[in-house]
Input
Amino acid sequence: MMRVFSSRRESITADLRGRAERFEQRYGRAPSQRELAHLAQASNFSTRNPKHGALDLAQAHAGWADKLAHTLGMSLASVAPSVWHSQSRHAGARPRGAGGAALTELELARAAQKAVALAQQDKSAWTRADVIKYLGRVLPRSGRDPAAAAALLENVADRALASEFEPIACLEAPEPLDVPSSLLRADGRSVYQRHGGTRYATRAQLAMEERMAAQGSAVGAPRVSRAEAAHALGADPARLQDALARRAQNTRDAHDARTGSGLREDQAAAALAALTDGQLVSVLNAPAGAGKTRVLAEAARIWAVAGLGPVIGITPSQSARNTLAAGHQTFAGKLADRQSQRIPSEDPDYGDIGPAFPAWTGPGREPILQPPKPEIPPSPQILERAMVRDADWEAVD
Output
């Protein structure tokens, strides 16, 4: 049927063949792929019939029906039902796959589990719409009426959320007060809640997150002493503690004040907390442009110079890796400049008194910036390795 009605392709192919032959006769070689694409575009334009006026749908419909009857001996009205398989459908019929065969419960269960796994892989908490989206991708898409296919997706999604195929938890907290019936939608949710906003997660995902939280809250990881960290940051420990507790007398002045390391007092306070808390996982959460990369670069320098081991930076993208590396290089150069400064003596015959800033003693190992990798959250395996190697993990959001 497609060959009968697709005469345009035949005309384009014939015209393109002639253009390719003329090209070869003129240039003595066959056209390249790029040149062939240009020739095909020219054939497309040259074989297109101009349209004059509005299309008469009734006349076109009659022409299609007559052409189909004379070439294939079938009526145009029988095409749609043959595609939808509506003649063989009846009430309560089981869903059918691509070949028209009914889908078994095992196939539906596997499709539901795969859809839930895809939704969970994409987001830590997902909605019913996410499950329906992935069900539409994993279930056969042909051989069913569109209305029946939509009903199948809705039904399988509801069964999946009811933990029929694997344990799933609803993450929506109950309403603190009874909502009047006048403020409830048809789905039973309040009109003040986002439509379709209920989020879910698999029990396996929640168990893994609980395990990660338990491991991340463990203490005993290597740390820098508060006095040593404050000295390296060039700041007063008491002022940094006030900044952490938000007890600064003037928040704006505390935000603008600079420490000896070049960090603002709020940035230095964040670095102090990460370096001295002794926790396996430390999280720095700040908006874009707050200076998280600068804080990490300075913390990496202090950590390595203190002899606590190399620092590995893992970033979700190449640009983030470049930013982190540039921040490290900036602070490394600043440290070298500071340590090269000398205090001049008033006696010209004596020279200088000594370094303006005390030099660090220790292994002096430089932080290691790892090549770009995919975004990796602190999985249980990474946390276990950190505990085994007596290391620390810092996450930035």
In short: The beta strands are 126-127, 168-170, 199-202, 281-284, 312-313, 342-344, 352-355, 368-369, 393-396. The first strand starts at residue 126 and ends at 127. The CA atoms of residues 97 and 241 lie 65 Å apart. Confidence is low (pLDDT under 50) at residues 86-93, 359-376.
